[in-house]
Design a protein that fits this description.
This protein is an alpha+beta fold. The chain is built from 4 helices and 4 strands; from the N terminus they run H-E-E-H-H-E-E-H. The protein has one domain: Haem-degrading domain (Beta-Lactamase, 2-Layer Sandwich), CATH 3.30.450.150. It is globular, with a radius of gyration of 14 Å.
């Protein structure tokens, strides 16, 4: 029986590197974004609402980050048929909207990034740019 398990965690430096790279990509696109980085427990490590981003998109970006960290997959894998029910059951904390990606390094789930305020494709592109900053 195992009573102790070693884990890897995303540091604040890693979260800031992700956030910085994501902001840079959003600026290159000319699309202000809300970007949220959470650890594997769903705790917010870094976030920004870029000047000009829709303020309510911060809530969807958080839900996207939480969903990706919780399921260990892209938010878009949440089946369309359950999206409304699961959103209601979790008080909006789980979503199937595009723009949420898990943060995975060497097979270990470290958290999630959520991006909102652009189109779904723009949100995903910005999230991927953030992940690339740490080789995820």
């Amino acid at each position: 029986m195992t009573f102790v398990q070693e884990t890897r965690t995303l540091t604040h430096q890693g979260a800031l590197a992700i956030l910085t790279a994501a902001v840079e990509r959003a600026e290159q696109m000319g699309q202000p974004q809300c970007i949220v980085v959470v650890d594997a427990n769903g705790e917010v490590l870094a976030e920004v609402r870029m000047t000009g981003a829709k303020f309510l998109s911060r809530k969807s970006a958080l839900a996207k980050a939480l969903t990706a960290a919780s399921i260990g997959n892209e938010t878009t894998v949440v089946p369309e048929s359950v999206r409304t029910a699961i959103g209601l059951a979790t008080e909006g904390k789980v979503t199937g909207l595009p723009g949420g990606l898990p943060i995975r390094l060497e097979g270990t789930l470290l958290g999630g990034i959520g991006v909102g305020s652009g189109s779904g494709d723009q949100d995903i592109e910005v999230a991927r740019a953030g992940l690339a900053a740490i080789g995820a």
